[in-house]
Amino acid sequence: MLKILKYSFFDLIRSRWSYVYLLFYLLLGCVLLFLNNDLSKAIITLMNVIIILVPLIGTIFGVMYYYNSKEFTELLLAQPIKRSSIFIGQYLGVALSLSMSLVIGLGIPFALYGLFQSNEIWDFVLLLVTGTFLTLIFTALAFNIALYNENKIKGFSYSILLWLFMAVIYDGLFLMSLIAFQSYPLDSFSIGATMFNPIDLSRILILLKLDISALLGYTGAVFQKFFGTGFGLFISIGALSLWVILPVYNIYRKCRKKDF
Amino acid sequence: MINIEQLHKRFGKNQVLKGVDLEITKKGVFAILGPNGSGKTTLIKTILGMVIPDKGKLLVGGIPINKNWKYRDQIDYLPQIANFPANLTVQELIEMIKDLRNHPGEDKKLIALFKLEPFLSKKLSNLSGGTKQKVNLVLTLMFDSPIIILDEPTSGLDPIALLHLKALIKEEKAKGKIILITSHIMSFVEEMADEIVFLLEGKVYFKGSIEALKTQTQESNFEHAIANLLTFDHA
Question: Does the model's pTM come out above 0.90?
Answer without folding.
Answer: no
